[in-house]
Design brief:
Structural class: mainly alpha
Strand order of the largest sheet: 1-2
Number of strands: 2
Strand content: under 5%
Helix content: 40-55%
Shape: elongated
Number of helices: 4
Order of helices and strands: EEHHHH
């Protein structure tokens, strides 16, 4: 159908592929930042201020699938603890 303020207009069943664009947008936004150049507090502030605002409008109107929310949290944790595909790091707190 299209989009309204970046949220897809849905006339059918909501699947995990429906919000794939939000996940991709979040990954691309964090790809421009380097977690190694930020302090831990700076990374927390960046996640709370910038990254958490991406899916908020879509979440106000439609309930997201649990898997989508889990993936968003995983992206946040990976950025905060410096986990990348090249260097896998253990998260100290889940």
């Amino acid at each position: 159908m299209g989009k309204y303020f970046g949220v897809p207009l849905i006339h059918g069943r909501i699947t995990k592929d429906t919000y794939k664009e939000i996940l991709e947008k979040a990954k691309s936004r964090l790809a421009t930042w380097k977690s190694s150049t930020l302090s831990f507090a700076g990374g927390c502030t960046l996640i709370k201020a910038v990254f958490s605002a991406i899916p908020i409008y879509a979440m106000q109107s439609i309930k997201h699938p649990t898997e989508t929310c889990s993936k968003l949290d995983k992206i946040n944790r990976n950025f905060l603890w410096g986990h990348t595909e090249e260097s896998k790091k253990m998260h100290l707190v889940k």
